[in-house]
Amino acid sequence: MLKFLKFIPVQLTVFLVIGILIGNYYRLTPYTVALILGVLLILLLVAHTYYNQFFSYPLAYTIIAFLLFIGIGISSITFQIQQNNSNYYAASTLFHTKDTLFCKVRITKVLKPTIYYNKYEAKVTQIASLKATGTLLIHYKRDSCNKFEVSDCVLFKAVFKEVPKPLNPYAFDYKNYLEKQQIFHQVFIDNSKILKCKPSKITLKGIAASFRKKVSTHLQQAGFKNNELALINTLLLGQRTTLSKELRQSYINAGAIHILAVSGLHVGILLLLFMFVLRPLHYFRHGKLAATILAVLLLWMYAILAGLSASVVRAVVMFTAVVIGTNMNRITNVYNTLFVSMFFLLLFNPFYLFEVGFQFSYLAVFSIVWLQPKLYNLHTFNFFIFDKGWQLLSVSIAAQLGVLPLSLYYFHQFPGLFFVSNLIIIPFLGIILGAGLLVIALSFFNLLPSFLVTMYSFMLAQMNHVVMWVSQQEAFLFKNIPFSFYDMIGIYALLLFLIKWIENKNFYRFVWVLILVIAVQSVFIFERYQQHSVNSFIVFNQRKNTVIGNRNGSDLTVSTKQVKEAKKVLVPYLVETGVHLKFTPVKNVYTFKTKSILVVDSLGVYKLQKINPTIVILRQSPKIHLERLLNYLHPKLVVADASNYTFDIRRWKQTCLKKKTPFYSTNEKGALILE
């Protein structure tokens, strides 16, 4: 079906990915993995020795080889899971016997701050007097006078807390997101509990971060400010921490967020610029080889400068393979190059596989390589400008087709005018990046003339205006599209077979297209059936507000006082389920199946006639004597939502524990869901 699947690098990468998935979802001990890998390696060597004398390698040999690469995939992730390290900080006996711990860390990444805290990723190097390892999320109070930089060494005393799970159904799972990056705990510290110490070693990331800080300072002194300065930091230095939330959202809505990510597009343009600048070297002996080496070195220097983020590393690895293959006068198969870069990246860091950026990047590049020539050949233009415009448009359409199902699955929206922003911005992106590098170089040496500052600021401002205008065309932005994992798989399979049928319209392929159309429709019908068959009662978790949902099939009736605030926690649920929403005031009594539910609010009224509640919900911190309520009503469950004061919730929890009545706090356990 697909010829590129016959290439050995593609096959080996596929089996490596299978191994990584197995190792991630079925955790094995390092000893077990090493044993399996050793057995497979011995079997392969024996098979190779035996069959080599006959100059023939049967299917059994191939199967053992593929199993070995599955084993390599399992081992690559198993040996990088931090909990498998004997020095992992959470494996220390001190970690489980003490509330607060002295900890020494090295800052590895500066994250986007919140309203109250600056955030950092850090490598643990010591717990008390014991050597340790692991990654930690640090929240440092913003009112503190100090800020940390990459490679800073910090000593502090703090309580290690697990990252909490989402407190409402279908909300963004930040805990799961951090776990994919091997971060399982966080600490909250202020200036009184830290001590900065001299770094034990200088790192490349630290040097790059220091250089970026100096560049940003020089750019500010030269006259760049606000969105333009943030855009330079994002486009050229790979730092999004200063980018405003509104501007970032505008790029998302316009379908141009990839322009802000220092990835394949940027690295490809920079490679062309480097090759153009180094082209005069081709006139000298071995000049082509020298130009190739210099271009690759410049790419890696830029990757270091941009902080060695996952997106820039994978792009530089891929283009390094392309440059080397091209300049060795070899006919480089682009699929081989693509999968070889993926193979080594995943071997180096198997957790890249679970990053959304990694998935988007490779799907987009694969789609461009595979689909763009087919789209471009559908029509030809004799006029140069029209031809180049169609070429750019076909690239954009191919990339969007490749990532559309994945985008709908993760973000549940589709920017209908993506081609407008891409057609306007991408032709000038090379000029913007090239001029940006010149601006950075001149500003660093204090040689940047004011007219260049004005011109470059104008260019960036106009790019922002275009993106903002496109993002404001809300009629073309399709939001809150329900789209499940099975929908995504079905649509990808249908697109694949549909394109193959368009290439060669034979009966066999047409039958497969029809089968997949029926399969996708069946998935949609089954999901709709499930949607109509669900009945549930939900007490959502929202601070200072009561949000009670009663779902009957595809209808959700929500009782709340603050409708506007309630919508913030309801949006993920509505998107995932596709239910219809209706609001009503909060009532005192609800019935769900055989359960009667009494809501006790700030009035504290609970002695109602003919009510024998199964569940009691406490809201707005009612002034009641809970022990008397329990003696009078004898409920089977007491629920406290997030509209109550924390002090009251703690007191009620102790009372219920004393009376042996189950207690449920949405602040601690998340939304209560009865089905």
Question: Which structural traits does this protein have?
Answer:
OB fold (Dihydrolipoamide Acetyltransferase, E2P); alpha+beta; 675 residues; 22 helices; 53% helix; eight-stranded mixed sheet
Number of strands: 20
Instruction: Work out the radius of gyration.
Output: 29 Å
How much of the sequence is in beta strands?
15-25%
Mean pLDDT: 82
**Helix share of residues?**
40-55%
First-last Cα distance? 45 Å
Please summarize the sheet with the most strands: 8 strands, mixed
Which ranges are low-confidence, i.e. pLDDT below 50, for 5 or more consecutive residues?
Answer: none
Number of domain modules: 5
Shape: globular
* SSE-based structural type: alpha+beta
Q: Work out the helix count.
A: 22
The protein's oligomeric status is single chain
